[in-house]
Each structure stands twice: as structure tokens, then as C-alpha cells.
């Protein structure tokens, strides 16, 4: 394919740049992948050796230079300030040509290292420079109308070649400050639980001004599996930081500016508090985010990354404003469609003539449902604050509110999008973790820019999960290479996705194609025992260099002249043969050239193993890693003949998939064990060393390992012995000898469809548990694409669908393989011989394709819950740790005595509730053993328990309080005239009693109440909150006979006010009920929450032990129909503020536990009787019993 116009320009500019010199830059050369540039930057202020390698990858090269930018990164350890300069280059170099990019980058690096700031002249091209650079192609560009942006889309693609006007530093005007206040009030009053905060700036001389919007994570209604997979704690907050450069920019301002000149930046983070500090906020914008955004980051600072912070940050900073412009011009466009239009338009501007856009907009029209996933229905299940459209109105638009909704909508649907380009990912219905699309460039960036998970964290915290992932991959590679063992190509296992686009370099060793015949001799030569000929496929070496290799000294001597260019620091592969071993055992040594002196090579050998070979008709022997076995009779001073090959073949350039599979096998076989990796990381944790710095792992092996871990889109965590917390109590009893993992798959949409299907099940047990067994070579794909029936492996005797069984033994029969030893990753600690999953199915077997065994055609009727793997028996080997990093317990391969098993099951039942299975279809363990399945571990049962718990909390009126001292500053900014910490409109009415209008309500009473409401509303609107002392949310009054009133702003010297501050409360919640006799009879007034200290225990404030007010005014003895409700509220407040004795909160119970209405009525009657006051006759009314 001929290079595009942009690529041709790039190549010409690169050739020109190599002929020039740049300050502090040397060794300008091509990189490992197409169009990549590498060079060395040297500066005396850098740590020793005062230089590091920089890699530059052009983005969207078809649009070079005007529509292109540069991704700049390094694999070396560098100071954080230098790392920030590299990271910022993706925006700083937009529209630049190579020459300007190099000069700009050099200048900014020097300025940072010399504690200076880049001048405007050096840091960016002047308009004259830009014009001069574009002059060469001016006539050509004028004819390129097919690359222009269609007028209908407006300004949604930035034009970075034109530099924005530098912002001026001026204090905010009163009008702009008031607009900021209104925008934050819109956030606060959105009834979503959002917390707006003014973090810092907004003063005279401030260039950057920062605000934040936060929300409790639990309000996103994500499943427990999703929260765990994304490393989110439901009690923490998601915090959107917005930084404005040079003032405050309203939504209308940004809509009127070019996209590239928004002067507004975004960061989405996680925090244990709703409000972060200005220092942490500044660090979020200024510091180089860590590669890992996983659990260990959450346990450190208050403000930290979430797993996909970098991806969402990039989306917000590059596409949010453009999508907003589209929606602002056409209110009928959804966020979903706006994002796809932006993505499609950016893609089209880089396309070659004649190419078609990748986005099919017709599939995502507004109001249309995706038939495969039911997306429209899923939208309806989202929290209401995510589905409310804040752009649909005609008034002012709050940018913070719109940005927060945009970010959260993307987060909860992040598995549907590529984490790099943010385009829609097709067929990602089974993904629980977000990943990349099929574009190789996206995968390259995902791995090299820190968008993926931290492999170091996974190795340290879940080593057996990493072992499992590598083992599954290795088993699939082995099966693909053993092609002759499969009767037909349709049954041959294969990896569905190879790590293409990473620029992986592999050894120049190929798997042979033609079998060779060998006559092995078994036993000593004198026995002369011969066997029938055995055929094996021998490997082929590409451009080998003949050497003599010294095992003990790791020295190689070149014995024949060769044109192969060997260099110091280069990784190579050495093959030798053990002469006295059966069949001439070939040994592969993975090594790095330390030094070269003529033909003498000093090597650092990282690992050794036998060469994988595939024999017929016998099964393949496993790869040998034991050094003494490999060495055999070779003496300490002996040398053996061999060959050395370089490791610089591009994996992507290999012709066949078999060659790719064999090459990856070689890299995996040369890896250290996961236990060794973990030991290295733990020993160097204070230096924060990564695997990339370990001399036992090449760059290729680290990148391959990162791909294996990052491409896993399931959530897998080991459970059972040796684990802590919930992982310990989630173990299933009755499956002895198998290592257990919690195994969750499926996007939030699929989980929602699964639970929606359960609603149609009218049975006591809504789900079934069933096993699914499959060959070890299939699990690498299963944990990435999910269970499906695309491929036929064992026939379909019972119809099309996914096969399950209640019988463990039946499903386990599908896991058996003759090559159980050969397919095991040689460095594995688990030594997995088989794998089987336990799944939850919708309990509708009558609608399955078949019910014996279960054949389920609806994929969303199944959800994986557990994964079990069977370690192979140890043969004179060391004890293996299969219980994870917290405990060192050997594996027992002996059957447990029945009595011990029974006792263990009994103990499990005592500690953990059991999931009760459908008696018609009970899933059994090996050999028909009874299973004990923890109820907590089955999401459908756990959801029912959570609902019951939430209902119980609602009944006892326990709810969280979001008020705290950290809110005071923000509240005073939002309500500057109110000297109070009380926030109107924040009361959660869902936790309060809600009554329907009574049947006895008369027109007279309703009219009187309506008049009172009118008067009280007028008073409340005209009186400062702190002076009024009470608040009624009149918009929430749906029943005129029941009011909710909040008393607030008490004298801080009152003991009650001090108790409230300690409890994090800002108001006392009252209920006023107007009974049948009102206004002739008094209203019934009681405290709903918090609970007060009873009078007998030293309490006061005229609050009875049941919460009713003890006041003669509120009985027939003291009531007059002439009393206004304003005076009632004032007198009730005065009574509570009474200090004879003072009211105190009951600190022995939960601060927000409610009083019940019945206990309040009884307490009211007792108080009236004690004082001799007349109780209104309508206190016998039914409405006071609920």
C-alpha cells in the first residue's frame, strides 16, 4: 500500500531532521515500530548516566503535520518533572513538524532541568514559522477538500497549528463570580448527591482556578463484582477536578471558542473524602500519573487514580467540549451519538480518499435499542441523575454539572469503549474490564503509555492469578503448535487475538513443518533395545551463528565467520545439544550480551529450558527447566557446540499463526516463575523497581506479560485458604484438590440483563448452579471473550448452545487431554492440568435447548461465578504454594477422610450462610460430593440480601449523613448571606415516612393549610436561613396533612448544637401531622431524628422518650385555632433550645436512627396524662399507627 500524503511528508521531514543538529539531542534514528523515532537526550542535571532514550510516536500520521501530534515517552527511570514534560508533549506538539517538535521538546526539557521556564519564542512556533512550514505544500493542500471538516459538524476538531492567545491573569469580576456560584448551586441542587467545591485559586494574580464535583461511589449502583474489578470502594468518592486557566469559563464561553482553545482541563480521581486539598488537586494536574491505577494506589494518598483515570482524562480533555458543541447545536443528539460523531469525524479527517468511516451511526440512533445488548433498557436502569439531560433546557448551563454527568456516563459504560481512542468496541458484551479496540496503534499506546493495569501490583497481590493467566496462554499456544494432533482445522484451538502492534521482537527460531524420523535407544547401549521409529518436528534456526558455548562461565566463542551483527546489550537465544540425552535433547539459553572482545562473547544467561518439540505418535514431553537435568554429563570446564541467533524478528511480520504461537511459547518458557518475580519486587519495593529493570527479563518478555495480564477482561481473584476478608469466606466446600478463584465476567449491561431475566422466574430459587468443563487450551479465550458457542470442539449432540451440567464429573470429562504435562507452562507453580467453571443460570430449564445436560442458547442467561483449576501431582519436586502470598501451605493430593469433610462442612455452615439450590437440579462436586456454596458469593442471592438489609435500614431509619466540617467553606461560598452550616434541599426524603392524603381531609382544613403554606413560604423566602432557624422544602409537600420540617442554626454554645456538630448533623428533622380535627385540634409534632437523651437519663428540650414534643400548646388544653403555624414552629424551636435542662443527643444509639410514630404517640399520651392535659380525640385515628 502506498504511503499516505501525511506519511510521505513525515518521512521527508525525518530524513531532513537527521541531517540537522539539536541541542542535547543525539542518535536520532528510526524506532522499533513503523514511523517511530528514537533519540538520546543528554543533560548534566539528569541522574547518572546523565542521559536517557526518548521514543516519539506520531499520532494520526495521515493528518501530519496540521492534524497530527506526537506521543513522547521513555522506558527509562527519569525525574517526575521530566516525565511531566514528556507527557505534556501530546498537547504541546499538536500541529508541529518533526524539526519544530525536536526543538520544542529539547527547549522544554532544558528549561525544566535548569529550573527555568520556556520562552514563548522557543516553546512554540510563531505564526510566521507555521506559515513558512506549510508553504511547501500550500497548493497541494488547497486541492485536498476531501480532508476538510464538513460544515454540519461545526468546530469539533481542534486546529492545533494555530496557537491560542495566552490567557490574561485578572481577578474574577463580581458578575463572573456570581455565575460561578450559580453553576455550583446547579450542581448542588441537582438532587443527585453531588458535592461542588471551590478548591483553590479565584484570587488576584492566580493563573489556575480549580473546582471539584464529587459523588459517593455507591450511588452509581454498580455491582459488587464491577466495583472489585475496577478497584473501587463504595464508601469512597469519585471526584471530578476542573481547572480553569486565566479566570472562570462558562459553558457559553466554551461553546463560542475553538475546541483547542478551551483553557479548561479535567481530571477524574478517587478520594476517601468528598473534598480534596488544593495541594492534591494541583498535583493531579501537574504530576506524572503512575503507570498503575489499581488497588495499592487507593491505599496511599487521599486523592488517587482510578483504574482508567488516564483514559477518561483524555476523553474529557479531547472530546468532551467537541461533543458538547454538537449537543448544544442539536438538543436531540444523545451523549452516546455525539461521542461517536466526534470520533467518526476525527477519524475521517485522517482517512485516505475512498476509505469508509468505521462508525455505523445507524446502529446507534437516538431512541433505538441495540438488539444484541438491550442498551436502551439498560439506560433506564441507570441512576436517575445520570439519565437527566442537563442540556435540554433553554436557560444557563452549568459546565461542572454537565462535565460530571458526561464523565460518569462514560465510566459506568467504559467496557463499551476503547480506552485509547474511545470508539465503540463491538462484541465487548462479556468484558468486565475495559480494553482497547482492534486497532494495533491503540494496543501499542495502551501498553506503552500506562493505560493498562500494573503488572507489578498483580504479581505481588495475586501471584496465582498471574500464574493462571500465563498458564492458560501457554496451553493455547501449545495446542495451536501441535497441529498434527487435531483431526480437522475446525477443531484446532488457536488464540483469537495475538499481541500485534506492540512491536514484539522474537528469537529467530521457527517451528519446523516436516517431521523427522529418529530411532531412539532406550537404556544402556549394551541392551540395544530398540523401539519403532518416532517422528518429531524439529525447530529451524534463522541466520544462526556457530559457536562453542561454555556452560559454567556463560562464554561463547564464534567459530565461523558470519554477517550477523551482534551488539553489546542485545538479547540473544543460544541452542546447544546434550549429546548423551535421549533423542539429542536441545537446550535453549535466553541471554544478554554483556561484552564483546573480538569473537569472544560474555553473556548473562537469564534462563534455560529444553526446546519444545512435537512428536508423533507419542504425546509431547514437557519442557525441562531443571538445570542439572539439562546439563547432564557436561563438566564445569567443558564447552559444547551450539548456535546463537538474535531476538529481533518482528512478531507481526511472521507469516503464519503457528509461527507466532511458537515464538511466543519460547518467550514464555524463558520467563522466571511468578514466585521469583514477586520475590524480586518485594526485595526492591523501597526502590520501586519494576520488572523492566530486572536483568532476568527482556523488554519483550515484560511487554508480553503485560499484554497477557492487561488483555484479561474478566475479574479473577483467588479464594479460600490463605486469603483474607471476603476471599476467605467465599470458598466452596466439597471440591477437594482444586484451587478456587472467584470468576466474574460480563459488562454491567449483561449483568443487568441477567437479573432482568430472573424477574420472569416464578420459583423459590431463581437460579441454578451448573458446571462447564473445557480443555485447558480454551480458557485463554474464555476469560477474554466469555463462554459462547462460536466454535465446535466436541460436537453438538444436544443442539446449539453453551453446555452445562449439574454433575461435576460429567463436565470434568471435557477437560481431559493426553498432553496434560506438555501443555503446562514450565515455570508454573500451579502446574494446571485441568480447569472447570461453576456458573449461575436462569432457572428456566424448560426453555433451554436441552435440560439434560443443560444447553443454553441465550448467552445472557448465564454468568460465570467460580473457576476451579486442578494442579498436576508433584513428582519429586518442591512443595508448591497454591494458596497465594499470605500463607505457605503445601498441596495435598490425597482424598480427605469423610469424617473430616463432614466436620469441615458443618463448621462452614456455622460461619457462613449457605446458598440453597433448587432441589430438582442440585450441582454436585467430584464423585457426587455435596457442595456447600456460600450465599454471599452468589450475586443473585447477595442482591436479595442487600435489598432486605436496605429495607431494614429504611425501617430503622439509619442513613448516612453527608454533612461534615469540610463542607462549611463551600456552603458559605454558595450561600454567602447565610451564616449557618445548614444546607437546604439536602434531606433524603426516601428515608422518611411518606403518607398518602387522608380520606377525612375536608375542604376547610385543606384551604387553611394552603393559606399557612403560602404565608410560611413568603416568610422563608424573605428571611435569612440562620435567622429563621427552620426550613420546609415546600416542593416536596405532596400531602398537605403531613409536613417535614428541619430545625437548624442553633446557638453554637448550646450543648445540643455541640452534640450535633460531633455527630455531623446540621438539622433536627420534625414531622407535623394535621389530623381530622385541624384547625380545631392541634397538629401532632414529633422528632423523626436524631434520637434525644431521655428525660430520665438527664435529657431535656421538651422531647419525650418517644420523640413527641411535650408542650401544652400541642394539646387541646393549650391549643387555639387562632394560633399560626409560624408561631408553632418558633415555640417548638424555643422549647428544644431550652436549657432547663438542656436537650442532648442520645450517643448510645446511631445518631440517625429514627423514632417510630407509635412510640411517639404513646409518649405523647403519657406526657399529657402526667401533666393533666387533654389529648385530642382524633389521636385514635388510624393514620397515627403508621
3D structure, described in words:
This protein is an alpha+beta fold and 1186 residues long. The chain is 31% helix and 17% strand. It is built from 35 helices and 36 strands. The strands form 10 sheets. A 6-stranded antiparallel barrel has the order 17-18-21-20-19-23. A 5-stranded antiparallel beta sheet has the order 5-6-7-8-9, with helices on both faces. Strands 25-26-32-29-27 form a 5-stranded antiparallel beta sheet. Helix 2 packs antiparallel against helix 3 (98-113), helix 18 crosses helix 19 and helix 19 (463-481) packs antiparallel against helix 21. It is globular and about 115 Å long.
Low-confidence stretches: 116-154, 159-164, 288-301, 351-378, 484-490, 519-531, 875-879, 886-910, 948-966
The helix-and-strand class reads alpha+beta
Radius of gyration: 35 Å
First-to-last CA distance: 78 Å
Q: How would the global form be characterised?
A: globular
Largest sheet: 6 strands, antiparallel, barrel
Kindly estimate the percentage of residues that lie in beta strands according to DSSP: 15-25%
How many strands?
A: 36
Residue-averaged pLDDT: 78
Strand order within the widest sheet?
Answer: 17-18-21-20-19-23
The percent range for helix content is 25-40%
Tally of helical runs: 35
Amino acid at each position: 500500500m502506498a504511503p499516505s500524503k501525511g506519511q510521505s511528508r513525515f518521512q521527508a521531514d525525518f530524513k531532513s531532521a537527521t541531517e540537522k543538529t539539536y541541542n542535547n539531542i543525539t542518535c536520532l534514528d528510526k524506532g522499533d515500530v513503523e514511523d517511530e523515532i528514537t533519540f538520546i537526550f543528554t543533560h548534566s542535571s539528569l541522574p547518572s548516566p546523565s542521559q536517557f532514550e526518548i521514543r516519539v510516536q506520531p499520532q494520526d500520521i495521515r493528518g501530519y503535520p496540521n492534524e497530527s501530534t506526537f506521543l513522547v515517552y521513555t522506558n527509562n527511570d527519569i525525574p517526575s518533572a521530566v516525565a511531566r514534560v514528556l507527557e505534556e508533549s501530546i498537547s504541546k506538539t499538536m500541529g508541529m513538524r518533526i524539526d519544530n517538535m525536536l526543538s520544542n521538546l529539547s527547549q522544554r526539557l532544558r528549561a525544566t532541568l535548569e529550573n527555568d521556564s520556556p520562552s514563548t519564542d522557543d516553546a512554540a512556533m510563531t505564526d510566521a514559522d507555521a506559515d513558512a512550514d506549510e508553504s511547501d505544500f500550500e497548493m497541494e493542500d488547497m486541492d485536498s477538500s476531501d480532508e476538510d471538516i464538513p460544515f454540519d459538524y461545526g468546530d469539533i476538531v481542534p486546529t492545533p497549528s494555530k496557537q491560542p492567545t495566552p490567557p490574561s491573569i485578572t481577578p474574577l469580576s463580581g458578575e463572573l463570580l456570581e455565575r460561578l456560584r450559580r453553576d455550583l448551586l446547579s450542581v448542588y441542587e441537582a438532587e443527585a448527591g453531588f458535592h461542588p467545591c471551590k478548591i483553590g485559586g479565584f484570587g488576584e494574580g492566580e493563573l489556575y482556578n480549580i473546582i471539584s464535583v464529587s459523588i459517593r461511589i455507591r450511588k452509581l449502583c454498580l455491582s459488587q463484582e464491577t466495583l472489585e474489578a475496577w478497584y473501587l470502594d463504595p464508601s469512597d468518592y469519585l471526584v471530578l477536578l476542573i481547572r480553569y486557566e486565566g479566570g472562570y469559563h462558562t459553558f457559553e464561553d466554551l461553546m463560542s471558542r475553538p475546541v483547542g482553545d478551551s483553557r479548561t482541563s479535567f481530571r477524574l480521581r478517587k478520594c476517601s473524602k468528598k473534598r480534596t486539598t488544593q495541594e492534591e488537586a494541583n498535583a493531579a494536574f501537574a504530576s506524572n500519573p503512575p503507570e498503575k491505577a489499581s488497588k495499592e494506589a487507593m491505599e496511599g494518598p487521599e486523592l488517587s487514580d482510578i483504574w482508567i483515570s488516564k483514559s477518561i482524562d483524555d476523553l474529557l480533555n479531547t472530546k468532551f467540549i467537541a461533543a458538547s458543541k454538537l449537543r448544544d447545536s442539536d438538543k436531540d443528539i444523545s451523549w452516546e451519538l455525539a461521542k461517536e460523531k466526534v470520533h467518526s469525524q476525527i477519524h475521517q479527517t485522517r482517512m485516505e480518499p475512498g476509505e469508509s468511516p468505521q462508525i455505523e451511526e445507524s446502529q446507534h440512533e437516538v431512541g433505538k435499542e441495540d438488539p444484541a445488548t438491550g442498551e436502551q433498557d439498560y439506560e433506564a436502569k441507570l441512576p436517575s441523575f445520570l439519565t437527566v439531560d442537563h442540556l435540554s433546557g433553554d436557560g444557563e448551563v452549568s459546565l461542572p454539572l454537565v462535565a460530571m454527568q458526561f464523565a460518569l456516563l462514560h465510566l459506568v459504560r467504559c467496557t463499551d469503549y476503547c480506552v485509547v481512542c474511545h470508539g465503540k468496541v463491538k462484541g465487548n458484551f462479556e468484558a468486565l474490564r475495559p480494553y482497547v479496540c482492534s486497532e494495533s496503534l491503540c494496543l501499542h499506546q495502551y501498553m506503552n503509555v500506562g493505560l493498562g493495569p500494573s503488572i507489578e501490583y498483580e504479581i505481588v497481590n495475586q501471584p496465582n492469578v498471574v500464574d493462571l493467566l500465563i498458564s492458560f496462554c501457554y496451553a493455547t499456544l501449545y495446542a495451536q503448535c501441535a497441529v498434527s494432533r487435531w483431526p480437522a482445522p475446525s477443531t484446532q484451538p488457536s488464540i483469537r487475538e495475538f499481541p500485534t502492534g506492540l512491536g514484539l521482537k522474537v528469537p529467530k527460531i521457527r517451528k519446523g513443518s516436516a517431521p523427522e524420523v529418529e530411532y531412539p535407544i532406550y537404556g544402556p547401549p549394551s541392551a540395544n533395545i530398540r523401539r519403532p521409529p518416532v517422528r518429531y518436528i524439529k525447530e529451524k534456526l534463522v541466520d544462526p551463528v556457530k559457536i562453542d558455548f561454555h556452560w559454567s562461565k556463560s562464554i561463547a566463542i564464534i567459530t565461523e565467520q558470519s554477517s550477523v551483527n551482534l551488539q553489546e546489550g542485545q538479547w540473544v537465544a543460544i541452542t546447544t545439544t546434550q549429546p548423551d540425552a535421549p533423542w539429542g535433547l536441545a537446550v535453549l539459553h535466553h541471554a544478554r550480551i554483556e561484552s564483546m572482545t573480538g569473537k569472544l562473547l560474555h553473556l548473562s544467561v537469564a534462563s534455560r529450558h529444553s526446546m519444545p518439540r512435537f512428536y508423533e505418535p507419542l504425546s509431547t514431553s514437557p519442557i525441562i527447566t531443571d538445570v542439572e537435568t539439562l546439563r547432564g554429563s557436561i563438566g564445569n570446564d567443558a564447552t559444547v557446540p551450539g548456535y546463537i541467533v538474535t531476538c529481533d524478528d518482528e512478531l507481526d511480520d511472521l507469516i503464519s499463526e503457528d509461527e507466532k504461537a511458537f515464538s511466543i511459547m519460547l518467550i514464555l518458557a524463558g520467563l522466571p516463575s511468578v514466585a521469583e518475580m514477586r520475590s524480586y519486587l518485594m526485595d526492591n519495593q523501597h526502590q520501586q523497581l519494576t520488572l523492566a529493570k530486572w536483568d532476568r527479563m527482556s523488554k519483550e518478555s515484560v511487554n508480553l506479560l503485560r499484554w497477557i495480564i492487561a488483555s484479561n477482561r474478566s475479574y479473577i481473584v483467588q479464594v479460600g485458604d490463605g486469603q483474607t476478608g471476603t476471599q476467605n469466606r467465599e470458598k466452596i466446600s466439597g471440591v477437594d484438590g482444586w484451587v478456587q478463584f472467584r470468576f466474574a465476567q460480563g459488562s454491567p449491561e449483561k449483568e443487568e440483563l441477567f437479573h432482568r431475566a430472573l424477574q420472569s422466574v416464578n420459583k423459590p430459587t431463581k437460579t441454578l448452579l451448573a458446571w462447564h468443563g473445557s480443555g485447558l487450551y480454551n480458557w485463554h479465550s474464555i476469560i477474554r471473550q466469555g463462554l459462547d458457542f462460536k466454535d465446535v470442539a466436541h460436537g453438538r449432540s444436544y443442539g446449539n448452545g453453551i453446555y452445562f451440567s449439574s454433575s461435576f464429573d460429567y463436565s470434568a470429562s471435557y477437560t481431559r487431554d493426553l498432553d496434560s504435562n506438555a501443555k503446562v507452562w514450565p515455570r508454573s507453580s500451579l502446574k494446571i492440568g485441568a480447569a472447570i467453571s461453576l456458573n449461575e443460570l436462569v432457572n428456566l430449564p424448560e426453555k433451554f435447548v436441552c435440560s439434560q445436560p443443560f444447553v443454553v442458547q441465550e448467552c445472557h442467561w448465564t454468568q460465570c461465578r467460580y473457576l476451579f483449576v486442578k494442579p498436576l501431582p508433584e513428582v519429586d519436586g518442591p512443595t508448591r504454594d497454591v494458596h497465594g502470598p499470605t500463607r505457605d501451605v503445601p498441596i495435598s493430593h490425597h482424598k480427605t477422610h469423610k469424617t473430616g469433610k463432614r466436620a469441615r462442612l458443618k463448621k462452614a455452615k456455622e460461619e457462613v450462610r449457605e446458598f440453597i439450590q433448587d432441589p430438582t437440579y442440585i450441582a454436585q462436586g467430584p464423585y457426587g460430593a455435596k457442595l456447600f456454596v456460600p450465599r454471599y458469593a452468589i450475586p443473585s442471592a447477595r442482591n436479595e440480601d442487600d435489598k432486605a438489609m436496605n429495607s431494614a435500614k429504611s425501617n430503622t431509619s439509619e442513613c448516612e449523613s453527608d454533612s461534615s466540617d469540610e463542607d462549611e467553606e463551600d456552603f458559605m461560598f454558595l450561600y454567602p448571606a447565610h451564616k449557618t452550616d445548614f444546607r437546604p434541599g439536602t434531606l433524603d426524603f426516601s428515608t422518611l415516612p411518606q403518607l398518602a392524603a387522608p380520606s377525612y381531609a375536608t375542604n376547610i382544613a385543606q384551604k387553611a393549610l394552603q393559606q399557612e403554606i403560602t404565608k410560611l413560604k413568603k416568610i422563608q423566602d424573605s428571611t435569612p436561613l440562620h435567622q429563621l432557624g427552620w426550613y420546609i422544602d415546600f416542593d416536596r409537600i405532596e400531602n398537605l396533612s403531613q409536613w417535614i420540617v428541619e430545625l437548624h442554626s442553633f446557638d453554637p454554645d448550646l450543648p445540643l448544637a455541640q452534640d450535633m456538630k460531633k455527630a455531623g448533623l446540621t438539622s433536627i428533622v420534625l414531622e407535623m401531622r394535621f389530623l381530622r380535627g385541624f384547625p380545631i385540634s392541634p397538629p401532632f409534632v414529633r422528632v423523626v431524628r436524631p434520637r434525644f437523651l431521655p428525660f430520665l437519663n438527664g435529657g431535656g428540650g421538651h422531647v419525650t422518650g418517644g420523640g413527641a414534643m411535650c408542650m401544652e400548646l400541642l394539646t387541646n388544653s393549650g391549643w387555639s385555632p387562632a394560633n399560626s403555624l409560624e408561631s408553632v414552629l418558633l415555640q417548638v424551636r424555643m422549647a428544644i433550645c431550652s436549657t432547663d435542662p438542656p436537650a442532648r443527643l442520645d450517643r448510645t444509639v446511631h445518631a440517625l436512627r429514627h423514632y417510630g410514630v407509635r412510640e411517639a404517640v404513646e409518649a405523647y399520651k403519657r406526657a399529657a396524662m402526667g401533666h393533666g392535659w387533654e389529648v385530642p380525640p382524633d389521636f385514635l385515628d388510624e393514620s397515627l399507627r403508621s
